[in-house]
Amino acid sequence: MKIDIVVPFLLSDCTGGRSGFSLEADTLEEAVHRLFADYPLLHHHVYNEEGRIRQHVLLYYNDENIEWLADRSIPLQAGDRLLVLQAVSGG
């Protein structure tokens, strides 16, 4: 099943200049693994040295923060999206 991936413009250099694309996977877990296997530089910007999602980054599966999901082996369906969101702050 194809899942749409949305990456903020600030990180699109990690995905070959693309901020929107799709990839093939059967489950959410597989899609996340494949995204970061295909784009290792993106992995560096999303995960810290301990393997946790960085404080200023959120990964959303449709409308759900994947950190809040008890199980990531959710079968993908048509229209599903995985969003990488990066908080920007300053003043």
In what range is the share of β-strand residues?
25-35%
Radius of gyration over C-alpha positions, nearest whole angstrom: 13 Å
- The CATH architecture is Roll
Number of E strands: 5
Please tell me what the overall shape is. globular
Characterize the largest beta sheet: strand count, sense, and whether it forms a barrel: 5 strands, mixed
Overall SS class: alpha+beta
Query: What's the mean pLDDT score?
Result: 94
Tally of domains: 1
Please give the alpha-carbon distance between the first and last residues: 42 Å
Q: Counting H and I runs of at least 4 residues, what is the number of helices?
A: 2
Q: What are the segments in which pLDDT stays under 50 over at least 5 consecutive residues?
A: none
Question: What do we call the CATH topology?
Answer: Ubiquitin-like (UB roll)
Element-by-element helix/strand order:
EEHHEEE
**CATH C-level:** Alpha Beta
Q: What's the arrangement of strands in the largest beta sheet? A: 2-1-5-3-4
Percentage of residues in helical conformation:
10-25%
- CATH H-level homologous superfamily name: Beta-grasp domain
